[in-house]
Design goal:
- With 321 residues, the protein is α/β, with parallel strands linked by helices.
- The protein has a single domain, classed as Zn peptidases (Aminopeptidase).
- The chain has 9 helices and 8 strands.
- The protein has an 8-stranded mixed sheet with strand order 1-2-4-3-5-8-6-7.
- A hairpin with a 7-residue loop joins β1 and β2.
- α1 crosses α3, α3 packs across α9 and α6 packs across α9.
- The longest helix has 19 residues.
């Protein structure tokens, strides 16, 4: 943790702050793309721009309520940094999307996560691992994860992906009672999680780790790391309700809320059968600045952001070796 610089995290966020989206602000997103690429390159990682395109793609608008739309053609660029391991075919991935919504600076969603990715790259720059480590800044998440879809197709052709950690909207904490919307947990399926949140008077003071059965070990490893860097009450583990044995399929059909566990770049990896977790502050279920002009750097909790970087480094060391 002493190696992680909060000042550096803050600087990255201020430089990368949006709005920038491939659809509406080409110059700002090109500057962000260049900054991410050059930072990773200067840290000694093997960095590649990976352009992609989709035609007749069903996605969502990057403004308003995100209404569904059919794009005649979508083009974007993922930035992928690689540190080859001794067993170079096996790989672990950490990713964060760098596009924002059209009308928000996007400090929490998702520039803070990109800053965490860059700081992680710095503290891992001199490390060696048995498995290959891949850090990816993905594009076009806000219009339904097209960068992640392209990344899955690209990586699975070259690597055996052992696990994926998705940084998504994870730097906002609120310690006031009843600042966490109760929909973030529900029913008798999550008794332990509900007890923990009730004991904290439903404050939005935890980091949520979303996983499926295939990624339970990676989720537990990350949670153990976060206990070391942020304390034993810093996280809450949530298994995707649609993945629960026996009743998962029924829940997906009957509870619209279940889709909130499948709203980011970890989902294309789940769809490909690859173990993946999402690290999040629960976004609109806590943060009043979500997708607003007020999503600014001064609203963020930099201690928790640094703790997540440290926890990820711990998790990678354990999982990759």
């Amino acid at each position: 943790m002493r190696e992680i610089s909060i000042v550096r995290l803050q600087n990255h966020i201020h430089v990368l702050l949006g709005p920038h989206t491939r659809l509406d602000s080409s110059s700002p997103i090109l500057r962000a793309e260049q900054r991410i690429h050059d930072t990773l390159r200067d840290l000694g990682w093997l960095v590649e721009r990976q352009p992609f395109s989709f035609e007749k793609a069903i996605g969502a608008l990057d403004y308003g309520d995100g209404e569904p739309v059919c794009f005649r053609k979508l083009e974007g660029v993922n930035i992928v940094a690689t540190k080859a391991g001794k067993d170079s075919r096996d790989a672990l991935v950490v990713l964060a999307h760098y596009d924002t919504r059209r009308d928000t600076p996007g400090a929490d969603d998702n520039i803070a996560s990109v800053a965490a990715l860059l700081e992680l790259a710095r503290i891992l720059s001199s490390e060696t691992f048995r498995q290959t480590i891949i850090l990816a800044a993905t594009d076009l998440e806000e219009v339904l994860c097209f960068g992640a879809k392209a990344l899955v197709n690209k990586l699975t052709g070259n690597f055996n992906l052992q696990g994926v950690i998705n940084f998504e909207t994870m730097a906002f904490l609120e310690h006031q009672p009843h600042s966490q919307r109760p929909e973030a947990s529900f029913g008798p399926l999550y008794r332990k999680q509900i007890r923990r949140m009730a004991a904290h008077q439903w404050a939005g003071d935890f980091t949520m780790i979303i996983y499926r059965g295939s990624s339970a070990e990676l989720a537990a490893t990350f949670a153990a790391g976060l206990e070391q860097t942020a304390g034993p009450d810093a996280h809450v583990l949530f298994r995707d309700p649609g993945d629960l044995p026996v009743i998962g399929g029924l829940l997906k059909k009957t509870l619209p809320f279940v889709r909130n566990f499948s709203r980011s770049d970890h989902v294309p990896f789940w769809d490909a059968g690859i173990p993946a977790i999402q690290v999040t502050d629960t976004a609109n279920f806590r943060n009043p600045n979500y997708h607003q002009l007020t999503d600014l750097p001064e609203t963020l909790d930099y201690d928790r952001l640094a703790a997540i970087v440290g926890a990820t480094a711990c998790a990678l060391r354990i999982a990759a070796d």
